[in-house]
Amino acid sequence: xxxxxxxxxxxxxxxxxxxxxxxxxxxxxxxxxxxxxxxxxxxxxxxxxxxxxxxxxxxxxxxxxxxxxxxxxxxxxxxxxxxxxxxxxxxxxxxxxxxxxxxxxxxxxxxxxxxxxxxxxxxxxxxxxxxxxxxxxxxxxxxxxxxxxxxxxxxxxxxxxxxxxxxxxxxxxxxxxxxxxxxxxxxxxxxxxxxxxxxxxxxxxxxxxxxxxxxxxxxxxxxxxxxxxxxxxxxxxxxxxxxxxxxxxxxxxxxxxxxxxxxxxxxxxxxxxxxxxxxxxxxxxxxxxxxxxxxxxxxxxxxxxxxxxxxxxxxxxxxxxxxxxxxxxxxxxxxxxxxxxxxxxxxxxxxxxxxxxxxxxxxxxxxxxxxxxxxxxxxxxxxxxxxxxxxxxxxxxxxxxxxxxxxxxxxxxxxxxxxxxxxxxxxxxxxxxxxxxxxxxxxxxxxxxxxxxxxxxxxxxxxxxxxxxxxxxxxxxxxxxxxxxxxxxxxxxxxxxxxxxxxxxxxx
Length: 508
Fold this sequence. Notes:
By secondary structure, the chain is of the alpha/beta class. It folds into 4 domains: 10-125, Cobalt-precorrin-4 Transmethylase, domain 1; 129-255, Tetrapyrrole methylase, C-terminal domain (Methyltransferase, Cobalt-precorrin-4 Transmethylase, Domain 2, 2-Layer Sandwich), CATH 3.30.950; 263-293 and 426-507, Rossmann fold (3-Layer(aba) Sandwich), CATH 3.40.50.10090; 297-425, Rossmann fold, CATH 3.40.50.10090. Helices cover 32% and strands 21% of the residues. The protein has 18 helices and 24 strands. The strands form 6 sheets. A 5-stranded parallel beta sheet has the order 3-2-6-1-7, sandwiched between helices. Strands 8-11-14-12-13 form a 5-stranded mixed beta sheet, sandwiched between helices. It has a 5-stranded parallel beta sheet with strand order 16-15-22-23-24, with helices on both faces. Strand 23, helix 17 (474-483) and strand 24 form a beta-alpha-beta unit. Helix 2 crosses helix 3, helix 13 (375-383) packs parallel to helix 14 (403-410) and helix 16 (450-458) runs parallel beside helix 17. The longest helix has 14 residues, at 323-336. The chain is elongated and about 90 Å long. The two termini are 50 Å apart. 44% of the residues are buried.
């Protein structure tokens, strides 16, 4: 049964696996649950960027646990799940990895079942397999083994191991994978060796697996704990013991990506606006994280847009200058009309591939894209067209540069410069990016518009020494200079793919 098919009066809880850290590893079903949730209760190891899939109106509650620190005790979490579901709400319990793999999801499901509350389990990609895979270590290999054993390292009661049969683990053939055991690694390795495992068994630790923060440490079983202590290797980490660790030498793929190890802060509008650039940088191995500085909101004065939409057939050209403008315009257009043909005979111009791509998503053709993705280039293109007495609509951000409107009017056009959205400072930090920047800084900060630079400076964050920045184009760079920000690189092509290409060249 789909989420939308349920009655709002009937509460339900979805125990959703968030995956191991890479937001791209969330399942489609998990995303569907988040999109329609009334409440999201999430853990420490659930990437907070996944919260962007939830509705802005959804309640978000942090129930994370780290070693020795609990935002919420398990009993309190269980009670909260019951209470929210009894209110008739769709509750998503977002858990790192898979809910049923050392995630206490079984306990939470049992509580829901005992209370007679409907629930669904949405499995997630577990770090058991994802961590080693991203480190270049297959858990099974025909030439090495045909099985693997998984156990928890959270086994200490005082100084004594409990709850794990080390004799059975040590004697089992194949690979061994341990979760939640970095703090007890010395005790665990000692127990495994004392029960018969060879001290020279190849071993690996993978920290923050599947993310750009990933670290991998290898060594023999007998000394891996000492190496981890020397390197101050801390949780969260996955441990792998077995001959397959040697395959990392030839199968390591993620850590060899061109931007691996580079921490890049992406200043964009919060939520989906950051997705394309973040995804592109992460595919290249970067530790890219969202630093939301602006939020897109409707214009304060709505009548100019209403009047433009009602008289849309009277325009000869509609000029889009940003994907946000495209989104806001067509949202308003399809609120008033249910037929794309109502747009009339207006020709369409777009500055930049991003704007053009968004227009095409609405099944609208494009008549003009300037060679350079700036207003000046579009003006040059219109100089080759007779626009005298033609009506041109500019649906764009409130407060945008007046250059385009002024120059088109000089060419004889009748221009309606209509605000369809506005940018306001983002005060929330749902993704945790602002807190992370305060603590860790970044190797590079990207700016994709003048407004992101303006609002970034308004956050008054501590700037790293030797700050390096990336600008998407000359208009953004001009604002950065005005603000006193250095410009380490400027994209030759003023769109997201061009910016990514420039960053790659910069680091090469």
